[in-house]
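User: Can you predict the 3D structure for this chain?
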Amino acid sequence: MKFGVVVFPGSNCDRDMQYAIEHDLKKEVIMLWHKDSDLSMFTTDDCIVLPGGFSYGDYLRCGAIARFSPMMKSVIEFANKGGKVLGVCNGFQILCESGLLPGVLLRNQNQQFICKNVYIKGQNEEALKIPIAHGEGRYYADDAVLNELETNGQVLFHYCTEEGALTEEGNPNGSTHHIAGIKNKSGNVFGMMPHPERATSAILQNEDGKKVFEMLGILN
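Assistant: Here is the predicted structure, written as structure tokens:
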């Protein structure tokens, strides 16, 4: 399989993502410019990645302008056909703005930009150390959506303590239900605020990000 990494004006994690996938995960990467729209080189077994950053300067709302780019129109079509799509940080915000994932990302509860290592856990209950860097990362949805996400197993990751406890201390931005990442009903669109691509190298003394990519099931 191969990965496509979309480059928006304001992206600042696109090369981080490219490096992590190529050098640490040993997969092919094709960089995709936001004004282009051709995804014919990808099959539904491949994965398109929306990286972190500040697409279009985060004017209006985070991800609101990127959602209307030519490339995103193709990404939406690709996802609706069953293709895998991963959005990280600003990419998660874009997925929510585009309607590919439910809910919104609001200003952090403390009203400040947060950049630090945090812990998240998925279904296997193992706490993974993954960096975050965002000002609008507080996931919010109404009760009906939240109940559906939890009931259907669509919550990929919860923020937690190093010991794996879901406490206020372990929830860095105040996300509802401690949600750090979710997927769509079909299980082919994934969004998360933490940056797994920044934790895939022994040089950085953290390879927990590799486990995140494995847990997402996108490394065929």
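The chain has one domain: 2-216. The mean pLDDT is 95.
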